[in-house]
Inverse folding.
């Protein structure tokens, strides 16, 4: 009997160690849904990322801050560092160029979940003035999300979801397909598998930064040395779209 008990204890310990090892390996390893480059888009310091990644931002193709400032009609412009701009206290912050892209964020940008028509007019008008622009928005609490790409006043691709699909235009891009983003049709119901399961809308929210990184830039992945380089411009929008 003692031998049998020892054998049972040994088996239980072996199973426990194996389960723990698998959990650790899975935590450290890559999710099969993402490649190594895509997983790298997630910041290992979540608190830092939450501070640095805005809930809404523009990516504008170009290197001239003055043209972006003029197109946005920035009122009371002033120099502003990356750190100050990312703190979220400014209505609009135009960041210095990074890899050929100028990022813009702040509470002065339209919320597509509140009024998608305002967002449409804003993006189209700005694209007529500046050429290629991209708009991204995410809200982890409400699970609202949006990604829009426009060029010279024409919408190339747009998807906005706020409890339902508010705007869908253009063909799904290869990046969206690769990331397995779910774009619901107009009036299509969104069903949750369970209270604990990640639903499609929530998964989309998590992947917005990954899509931004593929299309242009993810604000949370800007190198630290660039954050301490030249300042950008902060101010207030002089007109409301």
């Amino acid at each position: 009997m003692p031998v049998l008990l020892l054998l049972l204890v040994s088996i239980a310990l072996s199973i426990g160690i194996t389960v723990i090892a698998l959990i650790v390996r899975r935590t450290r390893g890559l999710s099969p849904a993402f490649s190594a480059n895509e997983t790298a888009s997630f910041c290992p310091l979540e608190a830092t990322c939450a501070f640095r990644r805005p809930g809404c931002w523009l990516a504008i193709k170009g290197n001239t801050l003055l043209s972006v400032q003029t197109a946005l009609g920035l009122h009371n412009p002033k120099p502003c560092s990356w750190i100050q701009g990312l703190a979220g206290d400014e209505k609009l912050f135009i960041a210095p160029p990074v890899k050929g892209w100028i990022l813009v964020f702040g509470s002065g940008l339209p919320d597509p979940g509140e009024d998608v028509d305002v967002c449409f007019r804003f993006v189209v008008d700005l694209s007529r003035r500046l050429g290629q622009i991209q708009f991204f928005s995410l809200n982890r609490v409400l699970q609202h999300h949006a990604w829009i790409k426009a060029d010279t006043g024409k919408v190339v691709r747009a998807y906005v979801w706020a409890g339902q699909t508010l705007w869908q235009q253009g063909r799904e891009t290869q990046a969206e397909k690769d990331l397995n983003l779910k774009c619901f049709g107009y009036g299509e119901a969104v069903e949750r598998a369970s209270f604990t399961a990640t639903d499609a809308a929530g998964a989309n929210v998590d992947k917005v930064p990954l899509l931004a990184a593929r299309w242009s830039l993810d604000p949370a992945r800007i190198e630290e040395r660039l954050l301490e380089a030249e300042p950008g411009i902060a101010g207030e929008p002089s007109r409301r779209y």
